[in-house]
Amino acid sequence: MLTAGSTFYSSMQNMVWGFQDIIKKSNYSYEYVKFMNYPAAMVVGDRKLKKSDKHTIEFKNVCFSYPSSNVRVLDNVYITISAGEHLSVVGLNGAGKTTFIKLLCRLYDVDSGDILLDGINIKKFEYDEYMNTIAVVFQDFKLLSFSAKKNIVLDKDEKDENVNKLLELVGLGEKMKSLPKGIDTPIFKQFEKEGIEMSGGEQQKLAIARALYKNSPIVILDEPTAALDPIAEYEIYRQFETLVGGKTAIYISHRLSSCKFCDRIAVFSEGTIKELGTHDELVIMPNGVYAEMFEAQAQYYK
Q1: Measured between alpha carbons, how far is 131 from 195 in angstroms, rounded to an integer?
Q2: Backbone conformation region of residue 170, classed left if phi is above 0, alpha if psi is from -120 to 50, else beta
Q3: Pairing state of beta strands 272-277 and 264-269?
Q4: Can you tell me the distance from the alpha carbon of 265 to that of 54, in angstroms, rounded to the nearest whole number?
Q5: 57-143+198-298 maps to CATH 3.40.50.720
Q6: Given 87, 271, 284, 294, which is the most exposed site by the fewest CB atoms within 10 A?
Q7: Cα–Cα dist 153/92, whole Å
Q8: Within 13 Å, how many C-alpha atoms sit on residue 88's CB side?
Q9: Between the CA of residue 193 and those of 142, 149, 186, 292, what are the distances in Å?
């Protein structure tokens, strides 16, 4: 009798606990369903992009503040980047350079103003199709613990010779040839003991190769040579025209020597574009921001 009573009590207790657990998990599910029903924060359209190797980009009176902040990171930014133009973006830290790129990549949307691609607001395009037009290397890029080749092509079936040509262009050709498995050598050692630990500069070159393999008509490079030594940096600059070709390119750099490889320079200061022109035009501008920055760097090389 006592055994039966004990078994009944235990069964009832388990049933109550089970019921409480169902209620608890149902609450979790409810919150998940409620979250999934939130309207999308990003405005996306259904417009198709015209197939073209070149696109014109225009920022019209763009203003932007980060969420939970009243400080305008960008304030009435206006610029037109012509199809096939190579634009260098410079400025002091916090001037809004990377934010400028993040808005173009739709990581955020503008507070006011418009960003146009070929005269059409970028919000009107299909998101995936719009993103296919942009290849970008950010400062905080990440490589995957796959082979060097897979880091570039991911799941695409690509000939080794094409990958090797690209690696040669970015200065990793000799490095890959020296490895027993070549471009099939794993990066990092998380999954493979024979994986290699690449230097910061080598990782940066591989990230550039990955962006270029995408073959998008717009290329964005945010501090692409920050981790490179001067000789490797020179090689990237020397190959810049071959790497980017006739694509529209936006190039952010703190090293003003890189600006000479671009058609125009946009100088950001206090959240807006203070100066716009070629290196030769800006370096002689009286009391110019660019001229001051260039002189500050140049004095260490004289």
Answers
A1: 32
A2: alpha
A3: antiparallel
A4: 19
A5: no
A6: 284
A7: 35
A8: 24
A9: 20, 18, 9, 50
Instruction: Using alpha carbons, list the distances in angstroms from residue 260 to 40, 278, 280, 288.
Output: 42, 8, 9, 17
What whole-number distance in Å separates Cα of residue 232 and Cα of residue 226? 11
Cβ-contact 222, 201 below 8 angstroms? no
